[in-house]
Automatic annotation (TrEMBL):
Gene Ontology CC: endoplasmic reticulum membrane
Signal peptide annotation: none
Compartments it resides in: Endoplasmic reticulum membrane
Record organism: Xenopus laevis (African clawed frog)
This protein's UniProt keywords: Endoplasmic reticulum, Lipid metabolism, Membrane, NAD, Oxidoreductase, Steroidogenesis, Transmembrane, Transmembrane helix
Name recorded for this polypeptide: 3 beta-hydroxysteroid dehydrogenase type 7
Amino acid sequence: MTVGSGQVYVVTGGCGFLGSHLVRMLLEHEKNISEIRVFDLHLDESLRTLSNDRVKVRLISGDISRLEDVREALRGSHLVIHTASLVDVWGRVPASKITEVNVTGTMNVLQACKEEEVQYLVYTSSMEVVGPNIHGDHFYRGNEDTEYRIYHKEPYPLSKAKAEKLVLEANGAKIKGGKLLYTCSLRPTGIYGEGHELMKQFHRQGLRTGRCVFRAIPPAIEHGRVYVGNVAWMHLLAARQLQIHPSTLGGQVYFCYDSSPYKSYEDFNMEFLSACGFKIIGSRPLVPYFLLYLLALLNALMQWLLHGFFTYAPILNPYTLAVASTTFTVQTDKAEKHFGYQPLYAWEEAKKRTITWVKSLEVSRKDLKDVGEKGNYCCN
Ligand SMILES: NC(=O)c1ccc[n+]([C@@H]2O[C@H](COP(=O)([O-])OP(=O)(O)OC[C@H]3O[C@@H](n4cnc5c(N)ncnc54)[C@H](O)[C@@H]3O)[C@@H](O)[C@H]2O)c1
Ligand SMILES: C[C@@H](CO)CCC[C@@H](C)[C@H]1CC[C@H]2[C@@H]3[C@H](O)C=C4C[C@@H](O)CC[C@]4(C)[C@H]3CC[C@]12C
């Protein structure tokens, strides 16, 4: 295999949901690279096979919270896309662990950039660094300059906000050798697409309830969603343009957006689940909000009581209920203006790809059933 003399990109968290789409996106659309280093705690060996005669995909097993691991991975590279993170709003992982990975991990990436002379860093942030806040203030078609009461209490959004601040403050810092570091931050809303773990959970849950989804959130509450392929594409463009126009992109934040429709979280999921015969029951929430809130509180209480015995972490808790019940949608063209971003996948294509993937979950479950698992499966 002959590998050219292009750039070396490091993708931290490159085996995750977004990370693995990003690695494939870079392989297909970024002609200027000769090596992609996929740095992750848990390696997905199938990515290795993506190497071709132009680009080598190198899997590096490491822990972002260990500076030495990060330094080694960055040595001799040109640019880092830092997506590695613990994504947990359910209390599955202790808060200290979330901080260690998301904040200390990001500090390590910055430190390693400085010591290993890596000039460019694109950070994957989250809409959660802005909101929704726990006061239930709606963020309706907002942009990067919209005023909003930002209030962080939960470990995950708190950690993402701290990490983003560090990343932005580091823009323009001197690195070893005297050159400057340039950083920018991308803030996806709720990402969906092939491989989305939460969608798998909703699909499994729907099978248990006879393909019925019981409406819990008012349909008027809009939740911003963005297709994973477009988020990956935006990262690729930001990485490319950060090197060409560092003074434009450096120190900036960009919401990730595309043409996915504004809908409630549940109605949006139904865009895919209905292709597998799922039905949403109720045009309004079946359970009054206060009951849902009590249930969420009960779940939190159970989590606290069972702590030490096992991790009780259901999807519904007071925080996830607040996020799902508060409108958060973005409407902006900052990324288009600053680095020419336009979605690579139209909504119809993103929907088609996601449906194909959701249907493939049915096939794999049917295989399981054939070897003895209970269930009732059909798909149109
Ligand atoms: N999923 C969403 O809806 C969403 C929305 C907005 C922002 N984000 C952000 O996008 C990024 C990717 O999220 P995702 O949904 O692909 O999550 P994911 O969990 O699928 O991917 C994260 C990856 O980070 C890796 N990782 C975790 N701890 C690590 C450590 N100590 N060292 C090295 N690697 C480690 C994991 O193994 C995983 O492969 C995250 O930064 C997340 O905050 C996600
Ligand atoms: C009340 C339930 C009835 O069906 C629905 C609960 C749905 C919630 C579990 C999810 C609603 C919104 C999601 C979050 C959002 O899409 C954005 C996120 C940002 C990202 O950085 C991490 C994931 C998440 C917090 C995502 C998590 C799941 C929801 C709260």
